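FYI - complex with S-adenosyl-L-homocysteine, inputs then prediction.
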Amino acid sequence: MEYKKNDLLTVTIEDMGHDGEGIGKVDGYTVFVKDTVIGDKVQAKIMKAKKNYGYARLVEIMEPSKDRVEPRCAYARQCGGCQIQALSYEKQLAYKQQKIENNLIRIGGFQKEEIPMQPIIGMEDPYHYRNKAQFPVGCDKEGHLIAGFYAGRTHSIISNRKCYLGVEVNEQILNLVLAHMEAYDIPAYDETTGKGLVRHVLIRYGFQSKEIMVCLVVNGSRIPGAEDLIAKLREIPGMTSISLNVNQEKTNVILGKELINLWGEGHITDYIGAVQYRISPLSFYQVNPVQTERLYGTALEYAGLTGNETVWDLYCGIGTISLFLAQNAKQVYGVEIVPQAIDDARENARLNHMENVEFFVGKAEEVLPEQYERNQIYADVIVVDPPRKGCDEKCLETIVKMSPNRVVYVSCNSSTLARDVKYLEERGYRTERVRCVDMFPHSGHVETVVKLKKW
Ligand code: SAH
């Protein structure tokens, strides 16, 4: 059966796509329906039809799935942030683990019984977990200042200062900033004209240190009444850093390169476990610190360190995993392509007085082979945490040549994970453990850690 645009059909949702959209089948024709969850029976209207599949809009839920829940946030459907809030958290976790299993079977060539899967690590309270929020500021139709979020896939701002994924103090800060803008007649930036001043409010919060950073992204280099704004923000307990970020480009990119410090040292500090990190408005830092500690904890457990090992941490970013491992290793080497990230990594190593870590700037698939051929480098354990496209084959090839006893693979994309695990399995490694960690509750994303052992 083939369908065309505007056709109405009744479909039962059986699966979920990458962005949390529901997937169902009618007479062999696959339909993707946003805002549905597995188990829903819905009426949907085809918006875009291809030969064997189409994208449809939800018209009516005829029979709700038994796993459907009332989303806590009234904007869950409009917002681009949460895709699966309408699915019970327990089922979100089950679905995520299932997705990894399916890819290991389909792409990795595993039998279901063979997968040494440990139970997924979810959150006890899957709300208010984000330590970073970036609220766009704009105007509504009546010209009132608003702050909120972009409606899914667009740039129209929906007013909402109370996001359930962020920390509660965000709302208080936004209220204060918007009141200040009103009092001083400060215009919000307008994306279409390129005029106006305030573009975004960036807020970061240290979950362990309780330090708060506020950074206003502005289309200019000053803010009227800055002293007054600083005085008001400083009344919030934990306020540590107040700054401006200059962004005068007509672009979707939120942050510009230049920072102007208004008050404080220009950064906050936070901890993951016992390791301290310095975070500036421009630094990359994991957004869910509670689950990050569990993710790195799992990687550390799988690495099986006793204090005598030499470890390579490939795709190391700002060295978060490297420093975590360095606590229990003889020597850790990190490799990362972005030079600024390596600056942060070295700074963080100094901050923690860790002398057993060394960082290299470059591509993992170039640095590792070069070091191996030139210096005959050695590893007991190699940890990789690549971007979505997975490891380059040259990198995997060198890992096999170096022949470490253990490889710990941390991944945000289970398709490329399964592909790379298969490569290693075919060349002398055995998968000993697999565990998923839910870093982003209410979204379709999941992180996975795999332990491979040489046999
Ligand atoms: N392990 C880090 C970050 C992992 S994200 C953490 O937990 O914080 C993946 C990282 O790989 C990014 O920092 C990205 O800049 C880097 N990267 C991308 N391609 C790379 C390559 N070919 N070689 C080395 N690093 C790369």
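The two ends are 50 Å apart (CA to CA). Residues 286, 315-318, 320-321, 335-338, 341, 363-365, 385-387 surround S-adenosyl-L-homocysteine (CB under 6 Å).
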